[in-house]
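Support request, please re-run this one:
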Amino acid sequence: MGKVFKERTSVDKALRLFLERISTLRKAEEVSIETCTDRILAEAVVSERNVPHYRRAAMDGYAVRASDTLGASPANPVMLQLSDQIEEGGTIWVHTGAAVPEGADAVVMVEDTATVGTLVQIRAQVYPNRNIGQVGEDIKKGDRVFEEGHLLRPCDAAVLASLGFDRVKVFKNPVVAIIPTGDELVSRKESRDVPPPGKVLETNGLMSALYVEKWGGIPRCTEIVPDNPDSIKEAVEANLDADMILLSGGTSVGKRDHAPEVVTALGELLVHGIGVSPGKPAALGIVNNVPVVCLPGYPVAGLVVLYLFVRPGIRKLAAIPEAPELILKRRLAAKISSRIGYIGFVRVVLEDDKVRPLAGARSGILSSVAKADGYVLVPENIEGYAEGEEVDVFLIE
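Re-run finished. Output below.
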């Protein structure tokens, strides 16, 4: 299998091959608007009512006939009579958002008035419709408010509520099966004590599940599977009802690394060996039209593959629209080295207006991610960046 790594695939090509084989899910379900945030609309939303459905005051003040304020100014106020109806020379107090009384066509702001008993001094001339929100000013009946594929935000939920919706149709979130493999793994459910030498607590499955959930998927974690090809094969076959499968561990070229060969036996191995460091041993494949990602066992390498392939894979499955990533521009407080032919994933910490690479941040040092504020991606065609160079910093979610 050493030959596989001699044929390593660039990140861009590997991602293209992977996404080309993923079909967007079109299954829909109804959810309450209280739980619709971060979900994708499965159909366009058309308003069946006007918002607002009445003329409303846009300011605290006095509803008037605009013609009654002609020529009003601080030096030459117009006197109007407080009344319970609008007629010539009359006015009614209104609060912001209140219905504008019949007969009124404007509102004078309270700041432009003064009261003298039952009389109101109008100190500013207003024109028809001044400080009045018209029927349908916000949304008109028949308006297409949201298109299919829209990512719903809390403010969108408020708009839906204003239209009288209590439920909305969205695409189902993809189910992602997470299968941790490895004879060295100890389940956290069985013991949280320090395991014996050669054994480690299983944490990659937890990390993967939390990122899957964060990115819009529904994680489904299995029990730990031993380093046995038949056992791994059975686990994959048992989870082919999922929309994506993550095999954690067993992706390299050692005697106990069986994940890629299992994918080959059950379906099609698209890529094994990717030009990224850490993360080179990753593999991508398809089994019964289900995308499979083989994550390296080293936790940081696994995280890199989650970011580079699992996240975009989930986005395509769930029809999540592309969103600009938050990137900070910072100058390096120390140089960064990288290998030609590999995209370097370098963990960094922010220091005032600069950024510093973490020392000793090997792929097996999980705490290096927790200590990092973000990462820098070094292109595969350069050996790194010099101290003082400006780089793009991607924040770690």
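Residues 299-318 form the longest helix (20 residues). Helices lie at 2-6, 11-20, 154-162, 204-214, 229-238, 259-266, 299-318, 367-371.
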